[in-house]
């Protein structure tokens, strides 16, 4: 089409459709081209589209509807949505409204929310200091921090910026208040002569397993929350996704001056938070929750990309910890064997025992015809200290072995 054949006309009328019909009837047009509507199928059925309303007129009219090719990403998303609609039970409109209202109400920073955070952190901190896993587990049922993280996943799927800000405010203030309570109780515990416990140390070494647990917990929690009949399972999910214990551990270890453990606990909380948001967002999308397209969802897409990159980025150092532990176990066993071979002794087994008073105990079983000397025990202790950054205590068990002369 040549540019000079295109002209612009303005026609005034109270009805768009009437103005178009008048223009077409007055001039000799062969066909009218109009762009395809981008509204949903439900809206098209309820209100109709411009081509439909033009063709309903009494005048004869040739109308052609055209549209550009959809991007491949848009086509893939449409296929995915159709597949999910056929294979995954979708939430009804009333269920989606009830879910949004429930999460929005429970994700607000309020007096009740703050009170529960302070109480849950106090219980958790005392349980960590007392080295009581049962107390720590019970405190997880009190903490309300899971719901704002689920709200973060919902807001990302919807592109709901006000809900996202509300949830992040609750998470941020909850983290600060829990950290302050943990630091305060940690300071009191240090003044009373308490030290690191097994419960504290265990939360200072996160691994990729914690990332997987948090992601699955986010999926499970959002699934239960979206279906009220399954809400009873939320308590178990809250126990699985530890959120308050890492924050309390960070505050306590900062008060104790154990910055390495505090850093590990802080990383554990960040890992859990990111994984829960992504897991819940994935489940809400699969359940049929969508957002409106447009510029308002740009931030949501960018947030999802950033969170996904962060999660995959965390997998590298978290996985390396397991690899180092496995590799380090072989290296330290070889070191024990070399030290024992000096006196002609044979290392039968090396076991890591539960922590005692914050110290890892390594049990070494040696086959010998007589008791192992104190000097050999000291050499094994030196080998353990050389291969570990943490404090280790070696316990040597002598297994008497005698070989006949014949």
TrEMBL record:
Transmembrane segments: 109-130, 136-158, 170-196, 208-226, 233-257, 263-285, 305-323
Record carries keyword Transmembrane: yes
Pfam hit, one: DUF389
Protein keywords: Membrane, Transmembrane, Transmembrane helix
Source superkingdom: Bacteria
InterPro entries documented for this protein: DUF389
Protein name: TIGR00341 family protein
Naturally occurring in which organism (per UniProt): Rubritalea profundi
């Amino acid at each position: 089409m040549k540019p000079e054949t295109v002209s612009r006309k303005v026609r005034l009328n109270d009805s768009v459709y009437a103005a178009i019909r008048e223009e077409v009837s007055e001039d000799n047009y062969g066909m009218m081209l109009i762009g395809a509507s981008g509204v949903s199928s439900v809206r098209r059925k309820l209100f109709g589209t411009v081509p439909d309303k033009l063709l309903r007129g009494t005048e004869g009219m040739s109308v052609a509807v055209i549209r550009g090719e959809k991007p491949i990403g848009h086509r893939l998303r449409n296929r995915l949505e159709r597949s999910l609609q056929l294979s995954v039970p979708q939430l009804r409109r009333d269920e989606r409204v009830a879910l949004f209202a429930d999460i929005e109400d429970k994700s607000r920073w309020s007096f009740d929310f703050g009170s529960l955070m302070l109480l849950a952190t106090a219980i958790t901190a005392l349980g960590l200091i007392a080295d009581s896993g049962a107390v720590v587990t019970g405190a997880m049922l009190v903490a309300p921090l899971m719901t704002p993280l689920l709200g973060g996943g919902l807001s990302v799927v919807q592109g709901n910026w006000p809900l996202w800000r509300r949830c992040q405010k609750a998470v941020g203030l909850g983290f600060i208040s829990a950290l302050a309570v943990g630091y305060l109780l940690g300071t009191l515990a240090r003044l009373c002569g308490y030290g690191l416990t097994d419960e504290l140390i265990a939360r200072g070494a996160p691994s990729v397993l914690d990332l997987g647990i948090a992601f699955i917990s986010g999926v499970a929690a959002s699934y239960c929350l979206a279906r009220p009949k399954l809400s009873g399972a939320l308590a178990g999910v809250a126990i699985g996704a530890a959120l308050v214990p890492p924050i309390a551990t960070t505050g306590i270890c900062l008060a104790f001056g154990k910055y390495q453990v505090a850093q590990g606990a802080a990383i554990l909380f960040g890992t859990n938070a990111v994984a829960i948001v992504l897991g819940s967002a994935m489940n809400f999308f699969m359940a049929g929750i969508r957002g409106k397209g447009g510029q308002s969802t740009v931030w949501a897409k960018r947030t999802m990309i950033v969170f996904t990159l962060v999660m995959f980025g965390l997998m590298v150092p978290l996985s390396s910890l397991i690899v180092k532990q496995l590799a380090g176990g072989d290296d330290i066993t070889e070191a024990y064997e070399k030290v024992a071979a000096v006196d002609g002794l044979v290392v039968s087994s090396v076991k890591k025992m539960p922590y005692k008073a914050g110290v890892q105990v390594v049990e070494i079983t040696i086959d010998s015809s007589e008791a192992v000397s104190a000097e050999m025990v000291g050499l094994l202790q030196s080998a353990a200290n050389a291969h570990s950054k943490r404090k280790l205590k070696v316990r040597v068990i002598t297994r008497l072995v005698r070989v006949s002369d014949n």
